[in-house]
Design a protein that fits this description.
Elements (H helix, E strand, L loop, with lengths): L1 E5 L8 E3 L3 H13 L8 H10 L2 H10 L28 H9 L3 H8 L6 H4 L10 H14 L1 H12 L1 H45 L1 H8 L3 E3 L5 E5 L4 E4 L9 E6 L7 E3 L7 E5 L11 H11 L2 H10 L6 H7 L4 H13 L3 E6 L2 E6 L1 H5 L1 H10 L1
Parallel strand pairs: 1-5, 2-6, 6-8
Antiparallel strand pairs: 1-4, 3-4, 7-8, 9-10
Helix pairs in contact: 1-9, 4-9, 7-8, 8-9, 9-10, 11-14, 13-14
């Protein structure tokens, strides 16, 4: 499973690294709504939430499904403009001005992404603003998410300009309340990372640059496809002549553990990636994580782990202890070793196995990082 971006024939100068104030505000709002996803930002989130005025806090609750359970594409609205030269603005105002350039159909279908199906439902030329059946379907999908989402969808379909103005005012009030200080604090770090990745791309090429961005990113030998290791499957193209060739990489301070890919049809793809902290463990591939879960799903291997957690044992010792054959134990140990859950060391003519406590101790965080990526 992965998200792939077709970049065959894409000139290197069309691969752009740039920070986005609006995208960073989106990740900041997500952190405020879901602090459990971002334990490293718990202190910041607690302080900001405590400082919010009741009116602003209430308005954020009205629209939090746009950044809480999903990350709305409207937070990267520049990618929907059919001009490949357009990149994120230097200020939140500039990013909001770019968002305002989207027509109502683009804005509405992007905003309705939270319904977990709208993106595919509304890919056709028709719009829920003009087609009665699609409008009814949009309200039905939103209703399944809850009354708050239904009210928002009804307002959006009835009067898109009013909702767009409401949303812009909400983001501007966030800037005044807390985001101006936050952006001032992180802007230099994001700009430096974008500059560093751009220089790395120029000097060492795409493969080395993607590896520096995230272990979950890779490309093929011909550099014709960017693959993003995620628990979803999707495809996008950076060489759509109707949109303009290009792909944008946006760094974020608040993003970890999420690695997001905008792959909306008719929009340029965007990779929204977290800056890696020095103490942050390397991301585990989806395949390797699945190997570990499958290895632990067998009851016999679970019993072996119980012994191996207490100390090193040989195959024959484990076979005697569990009244089974050495070949049977060897097969189970091979699965655990392939999954990286046990270590082996030779002592004379004996090989002793032991549970890798550090790796096993990370399984919970590995699970969250993998499913939230």
């Amino acid at each position: 499973m992965s998200v792939t971006i077709d970049i065959a024939g894409l000139p290197q100068e069309r691969i752009v690294f740039a920070p986005s104030p609006l995208a960073e505000l989106g990740t900041a709002l997500h952190t405020l709504s879901e602090p459990g996803h971002h334990p490293g930002a718990h202190g910041w989130a607690t302080a900001v939430n405590a400082s919010l005025k009741p009116d602003l806090a209430d308005r954020l609750c009205e629209g939090d499904f746009l950044w809480r359970t999903t990350f709305s594409d409207i937070l990267m609205g520049f990618a929907g403009l059919r001009d490949a030269s357009v990149q994120p603005g230097a200020t939140l105002t500039e990013d909001l001005d770019l968002l305002d350039k989207l027509d109502d159909e683009q804005f509405v279908t992007a905003a309705l992404e939270f319904t977990c199906g709208a993106e595919h439902t509304f890919e056709a030329m028709l719009s829920p603003l003009s087609d009665a059946a699609l409008r009814e379907r949009a309200v039905e999908l939103a209703s399944a998410r809850g009354p708050q989402q239904r009210r928002f969808t009804q307002r959006l379909l009835d009067d898109p300009p009013a909702v767009r103005a409401w949303m812009r005012r909400l983001f501007e009030d966030c800037e005044q309340a807390f985001f101006a200080d936050t952006w001032k604090r992180v802007r230099g770090q994001l700009t430096a990372d974008a500059r560093e990745k751009s220089e790395l791309l120029r000097r060492r090429g795409l493969a080395a640059t993607l590896e520096a961005v995230s272990p979950a990113l890779s490309t093929d030998e011909r550099c014709s496809v960017i693959s993003v290791d995620k628990l979803v499957s999707a495809r996008a193209t950076a060489v759509d002549p109707a949109v303009g060739p290009g792909v944008t990489f946006i760094p974020s301070v608040h993003q970890w553990p999420h690695l997001l890919v905008l792959h909306r049809p008719g929009w340029r793809p965007v990779v929204h990636y977290p800056l890696a902290a020095r103490e942050m463990p390397g991301a585990l591939s989806v395949e390797q994580f699945q190997l570990r879960m499958e290895a632990l799903a067998h009851p016999m291997r679970m019993r072996l782990c119980r012994s191996l957690a207490r100390g090193p044992y040989t195959t024959s010792e484990l076979a005697d202890h569990y009244s089974t054959s050495s070949p049977e134990v060897s097969r189970h140990l091979s699965v655990l070793k392939k999954a990286g859950l046990i270590t082996a060391r030779r002592r004379g003519r004996y090989v002793q196995y032991q549970l890798d406590l550090k790796t096993v101790g990370r399984l919970g965080s590995d699970f969250l990082e993998t499913v939230l990526r």
